[in-house]
Amino acid sequence: MSVADARAASLGTAEERAHSITRGLVDLGARYDAAPVFPVESMKLLRDAGLHLTFAPPEAGGETFPDRHRQYASMLSVLRIVGRGDLSVGRLYEGHVNAMLLFDWFGTASQHAELRRELGAGAFYGVWATEPAPGVQLRSEETGWTLDGAKSFATGAGGLAHAIVTAQPAEGSRRLAIAIASDPARADLSRWRVRGMRATGSGSYDLSGLKISSDDLLGAAGDYDRDPDFTAGAWRFTAVQLGGIEGLLIEMRGAMTPAAREDPLQRAKFADAVAAARTAYLWVRECAMRAAAQDVDGPAFARITRGVVERAALDVMELASRVVGTRSAIDGQRIDKIIRDLSLYLRQAGPDYAKDQAAIAWLDHDAWGDGDTLW
Predict the structure, then answer these.
(1) Structure pTM?
(2) In this structure, which topology does domain 229-364 adopt according to CATH?
(3) Strands (DSSP E) found in 52-114
(4) Which fold has domain 3-124?
(5) What burial class does residue 142 get, using C-beta atoms within 10 Å of its C-beta: 0-12 exposed, 13-18 middle, 19+ buried?
(6) Which of 149, 189, 257, 274 is 20 to 30 A from residue 289's alpha carbon, by CA?
(7) Domain assignments of the chain as residue spans, ordered by start
């Protein structure tokens, strides 16, 4: 354990360490929102708190949890807390956590050893699956493998150290490859001109001609797409979004003037916001536990949870705007930043499709299960 890691561990649990850097994430987030670049200082806060290590495989320096339920409960708390501080950093961190799980599930001993070295140097990882046609190809050569193609909406392009990317071989299902993600010549952020989530730098990244070895292939063909873990894993980004909702609720309460607190109509709006935020929390918590148990209906649960969180976020954003008024739309106000960030983050791919697929599952049977079915 390095001196920095020992210092981080002395700060307490992962949740306590996340709480300890929230104020810093808030302050830095305003700066990176105004002049969007990769949030180096914010990621350093995560690293110095040891949070880049927490959910890594134990063989790579990560924390050892008694079971997946304890691991996911801790993960839920940390993702929520980081999301409250800055949704852009929360999105980057969620990608890193996703990568750590993939290493844990599919990594070899040598890959874990290399990961330990990289994390010891403070590296952050991402997971990139979205791509323009025809997608990233994995070509076999005498000396190894070569990637061909690009990733779009590649969060952290040019700023992260590495990304786990999906790639299609000539035959069979797609595979996972570990690729360098920090080459500025391969990153193109010119089209990432957005109202919110600016510091994620979710541009495109050209992988063409990138040579990798067999040690850079993670798991077997088709591993990434296996359910229930693949689809149920959506609970992680809903946890970050939940943190944004909670952060907005906190700001809404703090912005209520004495006159607003004496107004029963304004108090009713605040009560509705509390109910929406806590409803989202209950669904995300339940979804995380279903994913931890590898529930066969975990995918249906995750899909409907996405819709619950989206609805809660939209409601709290509207209520906050009504209670706070014009200040909620003034550049530089934290409420404005959270609303802009959430508005974009909720557009995570295919929300309507996800809800429709959830409805199909629930029409077939009550996916809630757990001895409490309605039909």
Answers:
(1) 0.95
(2) Butyryl-CoA Dehydrogenase, subunit A; domain 3 (1.20.140)
(3) none
(4) Butyryl-Coa Dehydrogenase, subunit A; domain 1 (1.10.540)
(5) exposed
(6) 274
(7) 3-124, 127-218, 229-364
Sign of the torsion formed by the C-alpha atoms of 319, 320, 324 and 328: negative
Per the CB < 8 A criterion, the answer to whether 168 and 138 are in contact is yes
Six token digits for residue 64: 């050892």
Return phi, psi of residue 129, to 5°: -120, -25
The CATH superfamily label for domain 127-218 reads Butyryl-CoA Dehydrogenase, subunit A, domain 2 (2.40.110.10)
Amino acid symbol at 212:
I
Q: Is the pLDDT of residue 2 over 50?
A: no
Structure tokens at 367: 């996916």
**Sign (positive/negative) of CA torsion 64, 68, 73, 76?**
positive
| Span 59-112, pLDDT tens digits | 999 999 999 999 999 999 999 999 999 999 999 999 999 999 999 999 999 999
Q: How are beta strands 203-206 and 150-154 bridged, if at all?
A: antiparallel
Query: Closest by alpha carbon to 205, among 135, 154, 156?
Result: 154
Residue found under tokens 């209670």: 323
Q: How many CB atoms lie within 10 A of CB 281?
A: 19
CA distance linking residue 122 with residue 13, whole number of Å: 19
Nearest CA among 254, 288, 350 for reference residue 80? 288
